[in-house]
């Protein structure tokens, strides 16, 4: 199971999703805005980040761009979460460097599968090994 950083400003969404991920066996670290998310990513080095896109202080697009511009942090896979199930949002998230995209409300089995696939592909990619 993984250490997952959840960046989500909505308290109800954050509490619910972090509880459900924990029940699925993951360890969850939470941050409430994009700036805090970046700081938590640097400090905690999570295996994966779930990034709400609509965030105060620093939105999810900008936080992801900064993360992916940082040689130390860019290997951490990012799944964008957005309430808007629109193709333009997915395109925009991928342009910001997000590795995957999912829509809220979260369907947990679908999200867990995306997490599993991303972690598996990272584990088998030698360019993503720690310290590279
Ligand atoms: Mn939000």
Task: Give an account of the 3D structure.
The chain has a single domain, classed as Rossmann fold (3-Layer(aba) Sandwich). The two termini are 22 Å apart. The protein is α/β, with parallel strands linked by helices and 132 residues long. It is built from five helices and five strands, in the order E-H-E-H-E-H-E-H-E-H. Helix 3 (60-68) links the parallel strand 3 (48-52) and strand 4 (78-82). Manganese (II) ion is lined by residues 9-10, 52, 54-55.
Low-confidence stretches: none
Structure annotation, total helices = 5
**Structural class by secondary-structure content:** alpha/beta
Shape: globular
Reading side by side through the largest sheet, how are the strands ordered? Answer: 2-1-3-4-5
Please give the radius of gyration in angstroms: 13 Å
| Whole-number tally of structural domains | 1
CATH class: Alpha Beta
> Roughly what percent helix?
40-55%
Order of helices and strands: EHEHEHEHEH
CATH superfamily: Response regulator
In the CATH hierarchy, the third-tier topology is known as: Rossmann fold
Instruction: State the major sheet.
Output: 5 strands, parallel
The CATH architecture comes to 3-Layer(aba) Sandwich
């Amino acid at each position: 199971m993984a250490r997952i950083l959840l960046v989500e400003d909505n308290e109800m969404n954050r509490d619910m999703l972090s509880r459900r991920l924990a029940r699925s066996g993951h360890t969850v670290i939470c941050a409430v805005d994009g700036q805090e998310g970046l700081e938590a990513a640097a400090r905690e080095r999570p295996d994966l980040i779930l990034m709400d896109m609509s965030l105060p202080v620093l939105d999810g697009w900008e936080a992801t761009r900064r993360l992916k511009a940082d040689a130390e942090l860019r290997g951490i896979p990012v799944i964008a979460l957005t309430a808007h199930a629109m193709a333009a949002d997915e395109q925009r998230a991928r342009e910001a460097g997000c590795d995957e995209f999912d829509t809220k409300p979260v369907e947990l089995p679908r999200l867990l599968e995306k997490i599993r696939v991303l972690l598996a592909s990272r584990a088998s990619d030698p360019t993503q090994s720690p310290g590279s």
